[in-house]
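Please predict the structure of the following assembly.
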Amino acid sequence: MSHLVSNSESPLLQVRSLKTEFSTPSGTVHAVRGVDLDVRGGERVGIVGESGSGKTALALSILGLIDPPGRVVSGSICLKGRELWPFDERRLNEVRGKEIALVFQDPMTALDPIQTIGRQIGEALRSHSSMSRRKARQSAIGLMQEVGISSAARRVDNYPHQYSGGMRQRVMIAVALANQPDLIIADEPTTALDVTSQAQILDLLTQICRDRGTAIVLITHNLGIVAGFCDYVFVMYAGRIVEHSPVRELFAHPVHPYTEALLRSVPRSVAEGESLYSIPGSPPDLARLGRGCPFAPRCDRGRNEPRCANEDPATFEAMSTYGPVMAECNFAEERFALVAQQGPGHPS
Amino acid sequence: MSRKETGLVQDIKTARADELLAVENVTKVFRGTGRLRSRDNDVVALDDISFELGRGETLALVGESGSGKTTATRCILRLIEPTSGEIRFEGKSILGLAPSQLFNLRRRMQVVFQDPFASLDPRMTIEKIVEEPLVVHRLGNASERHDRVKEILELVGIPAQHANRKPQAFSGGQRQRIAIARALVLNPELVVLDEPVTALDMSIQAQVLNLLVDLQVRLGLTYLLVVHDLSVAEFAAHRIVVMYRGKLVEVGTTSRILNRPLHPYTVVLLSAVPIADPELAARSHRILLNADSFDGAGVARGCPFRLRCPIGRERSTCQERQPELAILEEGHSVACHFPGELSLRAGEEVVVGATLDPNPAHGTSLSQRGAGTDA
Amino acid sequence: MIRFATGKIASSLVTVLGASIIAFIVMRVLPGSPVRLIVGALASQAEVNNTQRALGLDQSVPVQYWDYISNFVRGDWGFSYSVGEPVRSLLATRFPASLELGCCAFLFAFGGAIVLAILSLTSAWVERFVRSFAFLGLGTPVFWLALILLVVFSQSLHLLPGPEGRLSLNVQPPPKITGFYTIDSLVTGRFGTLWNAIEHLILPALCLAFAPFSFLVRLLRSNLLDVTREPFMAVARSKGVSRSLVILRHGLPNAFLPTLTASALVFAELLAGSVLVETVFDWPGVGALVVQSLENKDYVVMQTFILLSAIVYVTVNLIVDLLYGAIDPRIRLARGTPP
């Protein structure tokens, strides 16, 4: 049974067939081409994708933050059973920052440079309640302490440029937590940070998930982070989810050739003279996508297959040891059967 | 041991004959502005650092932001001046050079920056971008330059027929290749790479790293590689220098540093690297540092790492005396009073000397989980 | 902040002193003898010499300069021989008139720029309007515009008064407190006078404001567009703040900063008076006085006027610099940036 079929517990967020496009001078760019996504309460979900995969567009689409020349074309976005699409700005403003919070990628540009940190955290609080400025400031201090900013009472009146990148990202998380959302979507929250700050931020997010039961969607291109943080993973390529799988299953037995290729290209120690694996070719132009599997030109398996080039790939679903698996690949079935034979937990 | 007797100075004296670059006791202080007591506002970006780089070698400078690694490269490239100390290129000092000598030196040292979107002038075609160093150094006539540009672009994997396009037409990975081409067009001996793949997607990182290693072998290049990601250093570097707050804390070959890290900071860095394997990740032990209470002015006495060090926070030795960089074994130096004490071993509890708070308060102290890990 | 301010004030003073030297030198270098003007063409050489001595013009240049500066600071700005009044009282009536007109014009220009810049973000119609309208503003001769406005609004539609100056002929000016008829009448409760003064201000202020408005609206709009692309705007929206609030709270203040310097220049220029507009509307301001003085080589008026203008410019720029520091914490708190 697919992860995506509702069982006794209906998911917190359920996205179906979401399509988003952008009108550019060189044509219509289909950034999100029919994405299905489920997030359950308290779950840690990863969306893995590289530049051009549409992952940021997906995050923004869910919250209705796509501005012209882009627009969400169609689909269903169900939050706690209530449909958000078609978008109603007033309803969305209630959802944003309160039921779903977003943590952006670059902490250096995510804060207004001429307002204090306290004001900006307070803004999140006061947008959804009639809190006074003073009370908001107090609450902001509390939030800052929760996310691990020392001397919060002194620092609350500082300005963003007085904070380092890691601290600013903590502030962003404090902003996200302010109204106790059910879901936090974090778009590459650690990409701009040092490896030690990265570890701290991920630990903080884990703590939040554990202590508050907040579901977290972590968008990243770093598979190492996904391995250590997520319970369930969606792999995105060229605007579609090409595979989704429980994390252990994904790393042990990747079904989609793109997933497998990604795993192989993680930098690590190699023997003398050997090189790292890198995926040949480059991502497709999202303005010029026709039928056929978008990964076919770069795929070891499907490069020379007319089926892969001309027809949309078949959707494969199965149940693995760790949970339901899906992949959009003509060869998924045989690949899955192959690794299933090897037994659970066997590294591929 | 007094400082003169410690190994590092000896290291430099008995440097290999093929040593290309030597940095000796370099200090860089950025003076504070404004107040009378400007000493309070001074930022000591580099504090008495020394290392050397052999021909054909890749040395990785590893550290967080604020460690001074970028300042060190700027000093080496003579983009800023060290406050004190010596830097030698092929045995000759590069600090007291006349402008014309410095100009010629620049041909032999080039740099690739981190951000491929900011390092290429969006108004120039990539042909012009890659050609520019040749024009500046007045090398070759127009047709010779054109040939050279073509040659170098092919070398980095950019088809020459795209040479008349502007940077915007290329992806991040391609732009970084163009930046590499620009760095190589003068046939330098030393290339400084400042976080060359940090801004790139994972699979593109692999491409560019492969290219860099390949070019090193083919062209006999020497790399000074600045990274904060140890897995990149693992793949590309022969030796690693770990920096913290302007000081060298550990120097050694890649395999030594990664398999037997001696300085607690190195251990922490290693434990922070994400492991692309959920099984291992779940079992792994990450040592987290408390959030750095940000203070640019530096630490007066004692070890600069003592405030965040899992083993040094409670120790008076660490509070009072600055550790010197000392050779512990062949090719492996460390600046620590208790090197090797903090370690991560598979299946074992963390071995730590001082008392640690087992119940960390909210986010402001360490957190420990699980058992050991393979480094 | 205090350190920041004293530094700026000190450099402003230096600038003013520099301007005074230049003013002084320029007036001495101009051809023509002011003494002749005073004593007349038929006076004898002896009378010329006497007058020269009396005016202190026979002293050495540095001494003359020192006299000039020390007198100025004490409030003695000399006597205008072409007009026949002490310069100080002359300017005391003229300057406020120009100031009031300039301030009003600035309000129109800046206020209009803000409103239209914001509107142009949301309405495509306004955006197109702004883009083409702005050209007109920068190319329209101000006196032509003045005449057109007068013909339309005063003569044909009888909505606003004609070129009568600051008040209708039968209206008494309010008691002088600031010299601004609007403020003075408001403060003393003369609401009829207030209304009359406002009516007379509208057309000339609009005229003066037209070109600066065009300039400012384009600048502000472009800055606003840049700012809306900044990530922190999207972050604010993700908190649930409505689009318009985000623009008001985060967009405008950040867009103001680069507009501030340009606004300062515009403001200073407006304050210095406009000859053309003042002439058409018969406005008793400084502009016409200046032209007169130049024609008459009335160096006393000129050198005082130049110095005063310099002070006005420098003060406005100083205020802008201080405002910059007040608004942008990065400038105020230069220290504290992480390496």
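Chain A has a mean pLDDT of 87. Residues 13-237 of chain A form a domain with the Rossmann fold fold (CATH 3.40.50.300).
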